[in-house]
Amino acid sequence: MSLLQSCPQVAVPRVLRFVLVGGSGMAVDLGLFTCLGLVLPLGVARAVAIWGAMTWNYLLNRRFTFAACGEAPLWQYALFCLSCSAGAGMNWCVSMGLCRTTELFQEWLALAAAVGAVAGFLFNYLLCCKVVFRSGGGEAASWRERVKHAHSSGHRTAGKIG
User: Fold this and answer.
1) How far is CA 52 from CA 58, 71, 104, 137, in A?
2) Most exposed residue of 3, 71, 84, 157, measured as fewest CB within 10 angstroms of its CB?
């Protein structure tokens, strides 16, 4: 029996796994940006680093955070990238809104950025749970199951299934 098999399984809450994956993605982002910034124009280096971190986060979230969700990987990846972009937009809007409307945040820009980051995180987590990695696959899975059942039972389907 290996050492890992002898250790008791510890259930880590999904939100904590999402945070840990996000933290590792930030390290990937900063590492890529630091290295690529030496050889690529700044904007290109930033875009590639963000894309690399987004891809890293997708792969880890698909494997560890939302392991039971089996949508088509490329479709899910596209949804994940869109949800990350929406979360980044939320982050930007909240932090900029606070900086423009509140004296406290005009003096403490990093605090506004932190509040925006938390808002973006919550928005990303919600989108990942409800859209990207939804449990059970939602409508797409039920549609696929009906098609699979219809074909396996020999029935021909015509028109819309639903």
Assistant:
1) 10, 21, 35, 26
2) 3
